[in-house]
TrEMBL record:
Residues 100-285 form the Xylose isomerase-like TIM barrel domain. PANTHER family: L-RHAMNOSE ISOMERASE. Transmembrane segments: none annotated. This is Sugar isomerase. It comes from the Bacteria. Keywords: Isomerase, Manganese, Metal-binding. GO terms for molecular function: isomerase activity; metal ion binding.
Length: 424
């Protein structure tokens, strides 16, 4: 379904007076309001195709209805999000969950919604129907060369789909590892994985990037062969200039200092992309900013500082994506909340008084340093984010409009109450 333009305009007319009052207040409070709004206009966050269904756990799925039944409907869902917030202009596909039957048609459809193709994701963590060899004991690390070759071939096939669609990056997340001590020879598993990744890397087009995602545990519970940023960094360094580390916020052991990891990877020119989510205990999958918003702010603070130091373009030089999927919310509402949290936090990081912070650091003035950060974090920037949306033709309050326009009810009417989107 499409969200008609007049509905957005009517919604904005109703909300405009309140918005203008809030905007005037924050614009008077902060120095660089105009510059921040422009940066927010430019910033886009990719939506993963597998977040559009109610998913999240391997124990059970409880579909809310109206879920996209195919790739076309997934693109339509992201088109809706993008019409509402103008910051979700990209989709990240997962092969084989999203095999495009006709890449030309899919590309044209996405273009109609103003949506680009972000990183392509391969899948060697599930066995697919008709697949010759099993990934039960790993894919790229496998002791059997034939299994490794199958995983390599699959990744190269994913690159080909991506090329046809106009993507320019491949994310490799491997669930490879072991569940019990003694199961694996760590060195051999690393070497096999490296050699497999090298084969894929060799097939990478010259203008593509390869992201090596790491994860501390799950589905393997004793060791993971790309288990932390050190291991990912080793692979990425050995592979070459087109390979980067991808940080998924939910893939660390509890209390890891993710902002420091991000700062150092950026410094080394090896930070490639992000999977945003939030978590309380283990893996990802909760709405961005729902549990640890201050941690997210500290991460964005390092991103802005580090990217500026290198003269990088915030909007284009890293891959920004949401990777979350759980059981209880309407996925589209959840994604609107996640994108909003990302935009708010990005705006707050842009507020940080860098000169004052550097002076405080040089003086060992710990109190002032903390004050500078928290001054930014405690500023209500929501009107700046809303203004960026307004200027781009989006809705002042996307979530409110999504509800008042009864979008889920219409999707259920159109697609049925029992649809289940492919994904986890
Ligand atoms: C898995 O935990 C990772 O976050 C990957 O990014 C994965 O490809 C994605 O979540 C879909 O399962
Ligand atoms: Zn991820
Ligand atoms: Zn994950
Ligand atoms: Zn996950």
């Amino acid at each position: 379904m499409e969200l008609e333009k007049y509905k957005i305009e009517a919604h904005n007319d109703d909300a405009l007076q309140t918005h203008n009052r809030r905007l005037a207040f924050v614009a008077a409070e902060v120095e660089n309001a105009e510059a921040i709004i422009q940066k927010l206009v430019d910033f886009q966050v990719a939506i993963p195709s597998w977040a559009l269904g109610t998913g999240g756990t391997r124990f059970g799925r409880f579909s809310g209805g109206g879920e996209p039944r195919n790739l076309e409907e997934k693109i339509a869902d992201i088109g809706l999000l993008h019409a509402l917030n103008k910051s979700s202009g990209a989709i990240s596909l997962h092969i084989p969950w999203d095999i495009p039957e006709n890449t030309t048609n899919i590309k044209a459809l996405a273009a109609q919604y103003g949506i680009q193709f972000d990183a392509m994701n391969s899948n060697t963590f599930q066995d697919q129907p008709g697949q010759e060899l099993s990934y039960k004991f790993g894919s790229m690390q496998h002791v059997d060369k034939a299994v490794r070759q199958q995983a390599i071939d699959h990744n190269i096939e994913v690159i080909k789909y991506g090329q046809a669609l106009g993507s320019n990056s491949l994310t490799v997340w491997l669930s490879d590892g072991s569940c019990f001590p003694g199961q694996l020879n760590f060195r051999k598993a690393f070497q096999n994985t490296l050699e497999s990744l090298q084969q894929v890397y060799a097939a990478l087009p010259a203008d593509w990037k390869m992201f090596v995602e790491y994860k501390a545990f799950e589905p393997n519970f004793y060791s993971t062969t790309v288990g932390d940023w050190g291991q990912s960094y080793l692979y990425a360094s050995k592979l070459g200039d087109q390979a980067y580390t991808l940080v998924d916020l939910g893939h660390h052991l509890p209390n890891a200092n993710i902002e420091q990891i991000v700062a150092l990877l950026l410094m080394e020119g090896k930070l490639g992309g992000f999977h945003f989510n939030d978590s309380k205990y283990g893996d990802d999958d909760l709405t961005v900013g729902s549990i640890k918003p201050y941690q997210l702010f500290l991460i964005f603070n390092e991103l802005v500082e580090g990217m500026d130091a290198k003269g990088m373009n915030h909007a284009t030089d890293l891959g920004w994506m949401i990777d979350a999927s759980h059981n209880v919310k309407d996925p589209l509402e959840d994604l609107l909340q996640s994108v909003e949290a990302i935009m708010i936090t990005y705006a707050q990081a842009l507020l940080v008084d860098r000169k004052k912070l550097a002076a405080a650091q040089a003086d060992n003035d710990v109190v002032t340093a903390q004050e500078v950060l928290q001054q930014a974090f405690r500023t209500d920037v929501r009107a700046l984010v809303a203004e960026a949306r307004l200027r781009s033709g989006g809705a002042l309050q996307p979530l409110a409009l999504y509800r008042s326009a009864d979008i889920r009810a219409q999707l259920i009417k159109q697609r049925g109450a029992k649809t289940v989107a492919t994904g986890l």
